[in-house]
Specification:
The structure is a single chain. Helix content is 51%, strand content 10%. The protein is α/β, with parallel strands linked by helices. The chain folds into 4 domains: 170 residues, Rossmann fold; 61 residues, Helicase, Ruva Protein, domain 3; 137 residues, Zinc Finger, Delta Prime, domain 3 (Up-down Bundle); 131 residues, GMP Synthetase, Chain A, domain 3. Helix 6 links the parallel strand 3 and strand 4. Helix 14 packs antiparallel against helix 16, helix 16 packs antiparallel against helix 18 and helix 20 packs across helix 23. The chain is elongated. The two termini are 65 Å apart.
């Protein structure tokens, strides 16, 4: 019968265990000095060697010819423990035997002395699955077992164990195995099995295993059933993952704002049976690598990739910029949550791609920061920046000039128009002839009117203003505005509010806005106004 690779190549001595040198060295020293504990706790993520080390320890304490802390694997006891004929070593699955009755039976058994070996060893796997009553039944036995009994508890979720259990055990933490170590082991096993695995494929398998040697060997076993010569494409086809080249293409579409290309790529992946949730998670991992490369000159061991792949990712990171990378990660993380509960995973992924390719579709703060960063980069490089201001309609009603407020005989005449024009010229270079520009300070004028003249504010609350050839044109449809302006006092209050809110004197005018939709001035438009004030040409297509 065929035996899976992870079972066939399971380590039989501490020296064969990969990536857990601290744990294996400590256990071998305890065996050599005969300073064994009565209870051990092995904790760590899956596939890192917890159960393997527990079985090696059970053989080592009973071996007739130990070799420097390792079992010989040749004596009758070692062979009997391997084939299960010696009952002094008992492995219990706490996931299926988690009741108090199972622990009571174990507590009764420990009183019996071992039949063949020196110790009775109880290996309780997934010990965190025991019930509260089972833990309580185990406490006393675990604290003071008979001299011939050793307990080895293994778990992936140590935080679920009661403190009373933790305090009675000698704890060993198993780390995630390094990708280089996993890749080396994959190469060794492949050579022994007559397989050919490229270096890139071995590193990809190590990255997919996420620190678990068992997972890596299972993936290798799966690839071996497809081909004897295993490369990156073979691994991608077997595991259903997207290659780094595909992720780089998606990232390039986002950088170039190519929504059509990104949608076509997602459709191709969907038609080839790629899982959208896994694609999203892999893209998050790719963007994480870009984030690390953008933030560190030498990422060292933080990124598992070949030098060629790292160079490609470094170029992508420099082209996007860190704020954009963080925005993409944030959008993909939210998409990943919705993919798990959404009706159509394909639609969720397509929506995410569209939001990333066109930041204007995303109204979040991160998207706004991304747009501002892009504009700042273009302004710094002297590139004409696109306008976010809506185009003006072809036919605009003529402006009606508001008459200046009458002056009393003993009052000095109103200042001439020349100072107002001079003030505006000092503020910013004059625009092209007859060019209209939005007036973002109009809200400040309205806030002043709210205090100085509430009736006038109520009429102008929904109005906007534009600037044209030294005039300030008030855009409103409210017919009460002209009636209120017939009062000289209201005219004076409006003129003073404009001067106080803007710091300049303008000639005031009225524009009917039946066909003009009010545009909300957002922070991005304010930035564009600042660019225009610096004399930079504004284009609408960006």
């Amino acid at each position: 019968m065929y035996q899976a690779l992870y079972r066939k190549w399971r380590p039989r001595t501490f020296s064969d265990v990969c990536g857990q040198d601290t744990v294996t060295t400590a256990l071998k020293n305890e065996l050599q000095t005969n300073r064994l504990s009565h209870a051990y706790l092995f904790t760590g993520c899956r596939g890192t060697g917890k159960t393997t080390c527990a079985k090696i320890l059970a053989k080592a304490v009973n071996c007739l010819n130990p070799q420097g802390g390792d079992p010989c694997n040749e004596c009758a006891i070692c062979r009997g423990i391997d084939d299960g004929s010696i009952l002094d070593v008992t492995e219990i699955d706490a996931a299926s035997n988690n009741g108090v009755d199972s622990i009571r039976e174990l507590r009764d058994e420990v009183a019996f002395t071992p039949v063949n070996g020196k110790y009775r060893v109880y290996i309780i796997d997934e010990v965190h699955m025991l019930s509260a009553g089972a833990f309580n039944a185990l406490l006393k036995t675990l604290e003071e077992p008979p001299a011939h009994v050793i307990f080895v508890l293994a778990t992936t979720e140590v935080h679920k164990l009661p403190a009373t259990i933790l305090s009675r055990c000698q704890r060993f933490d198993f780390n995630r195995i390094r990708p280089e170590t996993i890749a080396a082991r994959i190469g060794f096993v492949a050579a022994q099995e007559g397989l050919t695995v490229t270096e890139e494929a071995a590193m990809l398998l190590a990255r997919l295993a996420d620190g678990a040697m068992r997972d890596a060997l299972s993936l290798l076993d799966q690839c071996a059933s497809v081909a004897k010569e295993i490369d990156v494409n073979t691994v991608a086809a077997v595991t259903g993952m997207a290659t780094q080249e595909t992720l780089a293409q998606l990232t390039a579409c986002v950088a170039n704002q190519d929504a059509a290309g990104a949608l076509a790529l997602v459709d191709r992946l969907y038609q080839s049976a790629k899982d959208m949730e896994r694609l999203c998670a892999e893209w998050v991992g790719y963007m994480r690598n870009l984030m690390v490369l953008h933030s560190m000159a030498d990422p060292g061991e933080l990124i598992v990739a070949s030098p060629k792949e790292i160079e490609q990712m470094r170029q992508d990171g420099q082209r996007l910029g860190l704020p954009t990378i963080l925005h993409i990660i944030d959008v993909l993380q939210g998409t990943l949550d919705r993919l798990r509960g959404g009706v159509s995973r394909r639609i969720e992924m397509e929506m995410a791609v569209l939001r990333l390719c066109d930041p204007r579709l995303d109204e979040g703060t991160a998207a706004l920061l991304h747009r501002i960063e892009a504009l700042e980069n273009k302004l710094a490089n002297g590139v004409p920046v696109a306008s976010a201001v809506a185009p003006q309609p072809a036919a605009v009603p003529p402006a009606e000039e508001v008459p200046p407020p009458p002056t009393a005989p003993d009052e000095p005449p109103a200042p001439a128009e020349e100072p107002a024009e001079a003030t505006e010229e000092a503020e910013a270079p004059a625009p092209a002839a007859a060019e209209e520009q939005p007036f973002p300070r109009w809200q400040a004028v309205l806030e002043i009117l709210l205090t100085s003249c509430p009736p006038l504010y109520g009429v102008l609350a929904d109005s906007t203003a534009i600037r044209k050839e030294g005039k300030l044109l008030i855009c409103t449809d409210n017919p009460l505005f002209k009636e209120l302006l017939k009062d000289s006092g209201n005219q004076k209050l409006l003129t003073e509010a404009v001067q106080q809110g803007t710091g300049a004197t303008y000639r005031l005018g009225l524009r009917r806005t039946q066909a003009v939709k009010k545009q909300e001035i957002d922070p991005l438009t304010r930035l564009l106004d600042a660019g225009r004030a610096a004399g930079i040409t504004v284009n609408e297509q960006e």
